Amino acid sequence: MASLAKELSAAAGAAFEAMGLEARFGEVRRSDKPELADFQCNGAMAAAKAAGRNPREIAGEIAAKLKAHALVLSAEVAGPGFINLRVSDAALSARAEAVRGDAMAGGEKAAAPERITLDFGGPNVAKPMHVGHLRSAVIGDTLQRLLKFLGDTVISDVHLGDWGLQMGHLVTELEDEQPGLIYFDAGYTGPYPAQSPVTIEDLGRLYPQASIKAKADEARNERSQKAVAEMQAGRAGYRALLRHFIDVSVEALKADYGFLNVSFDLWKGESDVDHLIPGLVERFKAAGLAEESDGAWIVHVAKESDKKEMPPVMLVNSRGGTGYHTTDLATIEDRMTALSPKPERMLYVVDQRQALHFEQVYRAAGLLGLIDESRLEHIGFGTVNGTDGKPFKTREGGVLRLADLQEMAVAEATKKIDAAGKLPEDMGPGERADVARKVAVAALRFSDLMNTRITNYVFDLDRFTSFEGKTGPYLLYAAVRVKSVLRKAAEAGHQPGAVAVTEDAERALVLQLDGFGAALLGAREKRMPHILCEHLYSLAQAFSAFYGALPIASEPDAAKRASRLALADAVRHQLETGLDLLGITVPERM
RNA sequence: GACUCCGUAGCUCAGCUGGAUAGAGCGCUCGCCUUCUAAGCGAGUGGUCGCAGGUUCAAAUCCUGCCGGGGUCACCA
Q1: Residue A266 CB: number of other CB atoms within 10 A?
Q2: Helix %, strand %, coil % for chain A, to 5?
Q3: pLDDT band for position A52 (50/70/90)?
Q4: For A255 and B37, how far is CA from C1' in angstroms?
Q5: Which of A293, A309, A354, A531 has the greatest number of CB atoms lying within 10 Å of its CB?
Q6: Which domains does chain A have, with CATH numbers?
């Protein structure tokens, strides 16, 4: 059974078509005047304009046809041509049961699913993740879950930053510390030890050390550049070290991502496509797309229609090296040739500040025919700011590490849980710690996701971890309370049964449940998770109102009790399904 | 300078493919636990939708200009 809104839209659309008007005018949505209607259709006014007719007249004819529909209780014309619809209690009851029994909790698959690669994360090897990586991780992972849920075939890739000057810095700095390592013997041909010569702590120390030296000393910087060139040329010892650096880093990265419930299908990096670069460059040259300029090879990607300046793609720099334009292009080629099934769309969840970079890369990819330019999408997002409106910094002015942020969030959640003192007495320390962790993750993920992706937001841990207001913890509380009611009822031998909606609070709750599918599809279409967040928050609110207004498990009438338990179970199902898409897990008790 | 994003309640933000008295959370003021988790619910308070024009029966929403803020603009990714 499709959503009520969809059924009504189809009916209204058919009515418009029968009048020789476009079906799209029949779009029916939740009424923004609950005291007047359950649903509304505004299409008559737009249709009247297009057809040169009287809007109220058209609305009247549509309303008359809709009155005959099985779901419809009443259809009235109001104002200049609004059609206000009420649906029957029976229709709402059936809808609630359908949601409860539906594997997608009332959602529906996308009409045209696609094969998509999702590029997000983008952490650098050897550099600890910081607060700036939070958004890409959380937004990317949520899109991954959402798209898969809606039927798309998604392959996610963390796209490690594991190629470039930083690797040169690491190699040379390590050589200075431990010159005797076998990796630095150019004459040695292997095999190399399986055990890494460095730990993640070593990497975290070596990189900044080298970076500082290189900035002050040009010769030191040159050494790193040279090491990179040799690595790119295939020097075995350096490649073996690179492998160790990546493996050691990935282990640490997985811990950070794991805390946030973020996962990837692929852990590939820039270094994995290095071998494709020479051929790619040659093809650009052969196609006449690349030209030499100031000793570099560039690709012009400007179009006549451009209103802005469009700098060229830097294919090969004047020192003969390649940068991230080229590795990104090589990555596109790799995905188009190595992945099965072959992707038909590629999404990049990366900071909005990279918008120009991606536009350049997409154009170049289109020019060479790697993939149609329109199939490449940059999903940009704003920065995480401090209360001063500037990118978030620690009190000391440094960049906040993601691991520290997580620790802070857990500490804050623990503090609030302890202060409230609401956890069950019999809950042991292990379960308490688990609850605190889930609250912290819910707080971090929800507060990030509920903001419109594109804008910056102010990071306020105290607010995010609050159980009051539009927060992750509030949603967890609501979900846990539903579960608690259902569990208690089951213990008393009361089971959910047939739904028979009668009360206003019940009607409002089912109408909210009905909007899940539209919220999911809207979030997918716009790549905007906050649309789903809004829906789930409203659902939690509607349930809380329902819970406050009517007895559920404690309702004495058996039929009403069974009906309300079924409603509660439908809410639990949709809430848990939706929160799971946000990467938020609900504890059994809290 | 060009391009781009943003400017909505005291604060943090939704709404923006035009539609009814502009919504939410926080804050503040009231009220509600001898029935299911009050980490909750209900009621109230609070807005010249940056400014000025334009299009339209209808503009927070579309167009133009201006003001204010963030961001980006070829060899670091």
Answers
A1: 18
A2: 55, 10, 35
A3: confident
A4: 33
A5: A531
A6: 4-87 (3.30.1360.70), 165-259 (no CATH)
- Can you say how many angstroms the Cα of residue A69 is from the centroid of all Cα atoms in its chain? 38
Other beta carbons within 10 Å of A411: 14
What is the distance between the alpha carbons of residues A92 and A113, in angstroms, rounded to a whole number? 29
Distance (Å, whole) CA A244 – CA A206: 14
**Average pLDDT estimate for A435-439:** 97
CA distance A527 to A359: 18
Q: Classify strands A313-316 and A296-299 as parallel, antiparallel or unpaired.
A: antiparallel
| Contact yes or no for A508/A34 (Cβ under 8 A) | yes
For residues A388 and A550, give the distance between their C-alpha atoms in angstroms, rounded to a whole number: 45
Rounded CA gap, A452 and A459, in Å? 14
**What tokens appear for A138 in the block?**
């959380």
Reported as a single tens digit per residue, the pLDDT across A319-336 is 888 889 999 999 999 999
pLDDT score at A216 = 85
Binned at pLDDT 50, 70 and 90, residue A218 comes out as confident
3-state secondary structure A379-440: EEECCEECCCCCECCCCCCCCCEHHHHHHHHHHHHHHHHHHHCCCCCCCCHHHHHHHHHHHH
Using C1' positions and the CA of A33, the closest nucleotide is B20
Give residues with Cβ within 8 angstroms of A371, minimum separation 6: A332, A336, A343, A346, A365
Give, as ranges, the nucleotides of chain B with any atom within 7 Å of a protein CB: 1-6, 12-15, 18-21, 23-27, 35-42, 57-58, 69-77
Contact call for residues A107 and A517 (beta carbons, < 8 A): yes
A341 upstream amide cis, omega within 30 of 0: yes
Contact A233, A209 (CB under 8 A): no
